[in-house]
C-alpha cells in the first residue's frame, strides 16, 4: 500500500469546497410562526427572497480562490515486497486560481432575515 510523505500541508484551494459546504449548511434554518402552515411559510419566504433580490441583486465578482505559487517537491513511499521504495516528484509552479462570488450575498441575506422577522417569523 502506498503512503505519501509531504513537506508541505494542503493548500487553501483544497479547503474551499469544504468551507463552502459548511457555510451552505449553516444557512439551513427552519422558520416558524405560531399557527402558520408550511404553505404560508413558503409564500412568505418567496416574497422575502424576491424583495431581497430587488434590494440587493446578484453582483458576481472575480476572487482568487488559491494564490498559487511554488509547490515543493513531494516524496512518495511504498513497500515493494520487503523493501521500502521512495520517489520524489519535482517541485512546480501552480498558477493562481480564480472563481466568482456574489458581492451582494451578505446584504441580501440580511434583507431576507429582516423581512422574515418583520412578518412575525422566528428561527428554530
From TrEMBL:
In Swiss-Prot or TrEMBL terms, this protein is called Lipoprotein
- State the source organism's domain of life: Bacteria
- Transmembrane intervals: 12-32
Q: Which PROSITE patterns match?
A: PROKAR_LIPOPROTEIN
Q: Which UniProt keywords apply?
A: Membrane, Transmembrane, Transmembrane helix
Which source organism? Rhodovastum atsumiense
Keyword Transmembrane on this protein? yes
Amino acid at each position: 500500500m502506498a503512503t505519501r510523505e509531504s513537506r508541505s500541508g494542503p493548500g487553501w484551494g483544497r479547503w474551499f469546497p469544504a468551507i463552502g459546504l459548511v457555510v451552505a449548511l449553516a444557512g439551513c434554518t427552519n422558520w416558524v410562526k405560531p399557527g402558520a402552515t408550511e404553505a404560508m411559510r413558503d409564500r412568505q419566504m418567496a416574497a422575502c427572497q424576491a424583495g431581497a433580490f430587488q434590494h440587493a441583486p446578484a453582483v458576481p465578482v472575480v476572487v482568487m480562490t488559491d494564490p498559487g505559487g511554488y509547490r515543493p517537491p513531494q516524496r512518495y513511499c511504498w513497500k515493494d515486497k520487503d523493501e521500502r521504495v521512495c520517489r520524489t516528484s519535482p517541485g512546480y509552479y501552480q498558477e493562481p486560481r480564480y472563481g466568482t462570488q456574489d458581492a451582494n450575498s451578505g446584504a441580501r441575506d440580511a434583507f431576507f432575515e429582516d423581512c422574515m422577522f418583520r412578518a412575525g417569523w422566528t428561527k428554530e
